[in-house]
Amino acid sequence: MTLVEKMRTDDRAVAVADTISPGRPVLGPLESKVLELLWSNDCPVTVRDIHGAFPELAYTTLMTTLDRLFRKGVLLRRRQGRAFAYQARLSRHVMLREWISGHVARLLAAPGPSSAILSTLVQAVGRRDAALLEELDALVQAERRRLNSEGT
């Protein structure tokens, strides 16, 4: 399957507009689509490789978009002949984890009681799925054991 076919048949339209760390610029819609395409590919790609997935865009528009993602720290790039080959710096999972971790840390550092954010999280998890609430409890217990073993 070509990159163009992957892009057109991928129905996992996960919005990644906010999947970068707090304090960094947010991704725009085109940047998000390009990042999704890079995540679906196993190897670095050039502008030429992905241009067919975006037939409505000029080659230079994609080149600028990839360069912006690189400058934001989202992509890695290396020279490949006269062009650059790009790949995602982090997997979707790791990037999302970094984003969530940063936001939770900021919320917990805000003035006022941290209990509001924690109780909201527990309520949201409980409303979604009781089994997920059990998983959250297991994670809390595991982290408590880890912290206790470090303290001794």
In brief:
The chain has 152 residues and is mainly alpha-helical. It folds into 2 domains: 3-88, Arc Repressor Mutant, subunit A (Orthogonal Bundle), CATH 1.10.10.10; 92-151. The protein has 7 helices and 2 strands, in the order ααααββααα.
Keywords:
single chain, two-stranded antiparallel ribbon, mainly alpha, 7 helices, 2 strands, 152 residues, Arc Repressor Mutant, subunit A
The number of distinct β-strands equals 2
Shape: elongated
Strand order of the largest sheet: 1-2
Low-confidence residue ranges: 1-19
Average of pLDDT = 83
Structural class: mainly alpha
How many structural domains are formed by the residues?
Answer: 2
**Assigned CATH architecture of the largest domain:** Orthogonal Bundle
Q: Specify the helix fraction band.
A: 55-70%
Give the helices and strands as they follow along the chain: HHHHEEHHH
End-to-end separation: 54 Å
Can you characterise this structure?
β1 (75-80) and β2 (83-88) form a beta hairpin. The protein folds into 2 domains: 3-88, Arc Repressor Mutant, subunit A (Orthogonal Bundle), CATH 1.10.10.10; 92-151. It is elongated, with a radius of gyration of 20 Å. Residues 1-19 have low confidence and may be disordered. It is mainly α and 152 residues long. A two-stranded antiparallel ribbon has the order 1-2. It has 7 helices and 2 strands.
Question: What is this structure's SSE topology?
Answer:
Elements: H1 3-9, H2 29-39, H3 47-51, H4 59-71, E1 75-80, E2 83-88, H5 92-109, H6 115-128, H7 130-151
Helix pairs in contact: 2-4, 6-7
